């Protein structure tokens, strides 16, 4: 028994070492990824549940690694946050999305509001990249309303003056603010009145097992009612079945996002979906 215990601890140490090595090599590769243009954005439609129309999409980053293939943002965003590289990556994401909105306006005469995920690290740094972004928008002749930023409750939990003033700066130029993964964090409802929040995004974990008479449905209904009383719109994440969609629509949910409607798409596929087809 002693022996096997020793083996086990040895096994764990090796496993931990290889996790650490893996992170280190990913971290090195991340630096090259920006310079070598290995990132791209995909766009997932956000569908108005009443009409099936699409005026919004969430931009999600993808990393095409030269050897590893596609690396999930869930795996590399935390590493980029630790190394601080998320600042430059976030800057790239914003500029890429802004150029895309500009292109779509020219090509189709229609504005799609793009939601961008912002890491708390971007807010907490003293960098003022957002001011450069506002300049970039001016140059492109785009209004702030073409964008929404998605933040999480953890950012608001310990919001310093810097964070509050950055959030206000986004609001002042007309960018909208969405609270992502709503219901999973500390969910202090006071955030909703303290900050200028335009949307809550009900987390997938509430949508996954939606059924008539389920407690998840009761929770969704309560979140929707509360948001609406405060003038906040609701987006449900992870909608995969028509039953989920129908329950959410009946509950008054404004928007849905999920594989039922579409996976995140390349720009070409997104254009095909939005301009050549109706979802209902
Ligand atoms: P998130 O912001 O909560 O994004 C939603 C995730 O759910 C996306 O995963 C999306 O592809 C996935 N999803 C969409 N519909 C469905 C569905 O019907 N069922 C299921 N099971 N999943 C669905 P993805 O693209 O892998 O992104 C994972 C996370 O990585 C995001 O979660 C976000 O936190 C982060 N992330 C992605 N892009 C960026 C970015 O540009 N910047 C930052 N800071 N974070 C990003
Ligand atoms: Ca998001
Ligand atoms: Ca606002
Ligand atoms: Ca989410």
Furnish the topology, listing elements before pairings:
Elements: H1 2-35, E1 39-48, E2 54-65, E3 69-71, H2 73-83, H3 86-108, E4 113-117, H4 120-124, H5 129-140, E5 147-151, H6 153-157, H7 161-172, E6 176-182, H8 190-194, E7 199-202, H9 204-207, H10 215-229, E8 233-236, H11 242-250, E9 255-256, H12 267-276
Parallel strand pairs: 2-4, 4-5, 5-6, 6-7, 7-8, 8-9
Antiparallel strand pairs: 1-2, 1-9, 2-3
Helix pairs in contact: 1-2, 3-5
The structure holds ligand C2E and calcium ion (3 copies).
Ligand C2E binds at residues 44, 60-61, 72-74, 77, 93, 117, 119, 180-181, 204, 238-240, 258-259, 264.
How would you portray this structure in words?
The structure is a single chain. It is globular, with a radius of gyration of 21 Å. The N and C termini lie far apart (63 Å). The model has no long low-confidence stretch (mean pLDDT 91). With 280 residues, it is α/β, with parallel strands linked by helices. Helices cover 52% and strands 19% of the residues. It has helices spanning 2-35, 73-83, 86-108, 120-124, 129-140, 153-157, 161-172, 190-194, 204-207, 215-229, 242-250, 267-276; strands at residues 39-48, 54-65, 69-71, 113-117, 147-151, 176-182, 199-202, 233-236, 255-256. The structure holds ligand C2E and calcium ion (CA) (3 copies). One calcium ion (CA) binds at residues 171, 176-177, 196, 198.
């Amino acid at each position: 028994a002693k022996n096997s215990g020793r083996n086990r601890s040895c096994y764990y140490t090796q496993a931990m070492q290889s996790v650490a090595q893996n992170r280190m090599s990913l971290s090195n590769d991340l630096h090259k990824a920006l310079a070598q243009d290995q990132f791209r954005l995909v766009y997932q439609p956000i569908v108005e549940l009443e009409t099936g129309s699409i005026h919004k999409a969430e931009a999600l980053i993808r990393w095409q690694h030269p050897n590893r293939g596609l690396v999930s943002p869930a795996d590399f965003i935390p590493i980029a946050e630790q190394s601080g590289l998320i600042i430059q990556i976030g800057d790239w994401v914003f500029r890429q999305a802004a150029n895309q909105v500009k292109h779509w306006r020219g090509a189709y005469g229609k504005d799609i509001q793009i939601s961008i995920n912002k890491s708390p690290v971007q807010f907490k740094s003293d960098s003022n990249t957002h001011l450069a972004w506002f300049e970039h928008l001016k140059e492109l002749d785009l209004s702030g309303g073409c964008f929404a930023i998605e933040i999480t409750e953890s950012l608001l939990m310990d919001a310093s003056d810097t964070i509050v003033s950055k959030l206000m700066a986004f609001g002042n130029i007309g960018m909208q603010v969405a609270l992502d993964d709503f219901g999973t964090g500390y969910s202090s409802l006071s955030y909703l009145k303290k900050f200028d929040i335009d949307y809550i995004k009900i987390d997938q974990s509430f949508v996954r097992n939606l059924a008539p008479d389920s407690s998840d449905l009761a929770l969704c209904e309560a979140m929707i009612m509360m948001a609406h009383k405060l003038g906040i719109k609701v987006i449900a994440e992870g909608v995969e079945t028509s039953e989920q969609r129908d329950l959410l629509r009946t509950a008054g949910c404004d928007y849905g996002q999920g594989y039922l409607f579409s996976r995140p798409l390349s720009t070409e596929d997104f254009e095909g979906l939005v301009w050549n087809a109706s979802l209902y």
